[in-house]
Amino acid sequence: MPRDSRLPPDDVTRFYRIWHALLRWTNARKGVSPGAEAPYHPQQALPIRDALWADDGLRHAWIDANPDNMPSADLALVRSWDHRMAGSFIVFKHYAGHTVFLHEGQGYAVLGLTDPLRDMLPVVPHFVEAVLVPYEGRITYDGLIAGFPISFGAGIRRNLADEFRRIQERGELHHSLGPAAEASPADTAAANRKANKSVLASYATYLKAQRHSEAIRARDLAVAEWLAEIAGSDRSLALLCAQDLQDAVASAGRFPVPRSEVFTSLKRFVVFLAESERMGWDEADDVHAWLRARSRGR
Questions:
Q1: Element (H, E) at 61
Q2: Given phi > 0 = left and psi -120 to 50 = alpha, else beta, which region is 193?
Q3: Which has the closest alpha carbon to 125: 117, 134, 136?
Q4: 280's torsion region: left (phi>0), alpha (psi -120 to 50) or beta?
Q5: Sign of CA pseudo-dihedral 124, 127, 129, 134
Q6: Window from 182-186, 224-228, 265-269 with minimum mean pLDDT
């Protein structure tokens, strides 16, 4: 991942060579900006861009006709833009190697083109309209971003931070668009360990705010750590469903504390998962009912 958070210069040149050819093709067929010539001024490019994305047939016809004699690799890149993401995003945070865009509970690691996104949008969070496109296993945008001067209060900023944390825990920060390669068991296990570490740290903070003794808090955290262990490396606490929890507890060969205390602690952990939006309340209610039945020996 490039450390300046942009595509490498050769890739930027390639992108714009392809992009300007596509816009010329679209403008010639739609007559959006008569007389305008590439490279287009952004005000000229915007309506042409909108016409292009509104009709995938234009792009597919360009690929089939290949009027600019593009190499096959360039045509394949344009074909991959079937998997673009268009809409409203919140530019949440700039990192050394990418900028995080948030959209409907998902995160996208986006690279800039000519200019780093941190220079274009230095104040974050920032509400934008954009079209994200895949680029050889990475994500960039189509060169046009519309930003809106919307103020984010402290409460919204906290909510966004919580959402981003959950996105990271669920492994839903995407570094590419389109069909994803299946992760190896080792990568899955590493991601789950990282997610569990985050969930358990949040749970420890949650327990400190509860009016219980230090011994009870320590017991509850120990039970949550035990659950992470018995759930196995193929399960993340951030994605734990009712059946996962039931299967793990039912198959456990040992308990870290007396049986009745295990079920008490698990009930509290499930409430935490629901309150932190890591588990739905309906599912949490199902787990509580199951735990009550188990604690009575049924």
A1: helix 56-65
A2: alpha
A3: 117
A4: beta
A5: positive
A6: 182-186
Tokens 């193929």 -> residue: 234
**Any long-range contacts for 287-293 (C-beta under 8 Å, 24+ apart)?**
287/242, 287/245, 287/246, 290/242, 290/246, 291/263, 291/266, 291/267, 292/263
Determine the pLDDT at residue 92.
97
Q: What token pair was written down for 265?
A: 């602690």
What would you report as the CA-atom Rg of the chain, rounded to the nearest whole angstrom? 25
pLDDT in tens, 14-56: 999 999 999 999 999 988 888 777 778 888 889 999 999 999 9
Q: How far apart are the first and last CA of the chain?
A: 53
User: Would you call 153 exposed, middle or buried from its count of C-beta atoms within 10 A (0-12, 13-18, 19+)?
Assistant: exposed
Burial class (CB in 10 A: 0-12, 13-18, 19+), 182: exposed
Measured in residues, the chain has a length of 298
C-alpha distances out from residue 103 to 92, 108, 120, 245, Å: 10, 8, 19, 29
What's residue 36's pLDDT? Answer: 76
